[in-house]
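mind reviewing these tokens:
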Amino acid sequence: GIVSLISLAVLSYERYCTMTGMTEADTTNYRKIWTGIVLSWTYSLAWTAPPLFGWSSYGPEGPGTTCSVNWHSKDINNTSYIICLFIFCLVIPFVVIVYSYGKLLCAIRQVSGINKGMGRSREQRVLIMVVVMVICFLLCWLPYATVALIATFGKPGLITPAASIIPSILAKSSTVYNPIIYIFLNKQV
């Protein structure tokens, strides 16, 4: 899930840079693509590995059928990790996405009357596809994040195992939606 969100943040920034002319679109050079992939996975690993080394812990969640961070522990070790996870793996990437697409939409509006070429049309389709991916990601992960924060900071037992099943399954299925969205919104497939 974290790799998915970070990848969307990197993609949004790349779209912003390409469409605003900060970098040149080069379909033959894969260095920038590989850098984005390595950055996404490294950042995600850096934030998912700490429970393996003692900062918080992993354990069964909900009815015990899935594994996740220990949301129910109230000690400072777990609480600090959950706060950092929420800020650095949901809020900051989401801010990058909103900033990049906000600036990109402003740029598209400015040039939409001037340049109606095929390149811009294709870029706008890609932008729509990525925005749909981001919205689907948030629809999948915000309920899970909300339940996790309530379990962490709310009264003990406020979130029952049964109440956490749907957000958990929805969140963990989010990686399936991006390829489906890509297939339906990409005319080249």
Observations:
- DSSP finds six helices and two strands in the chain.
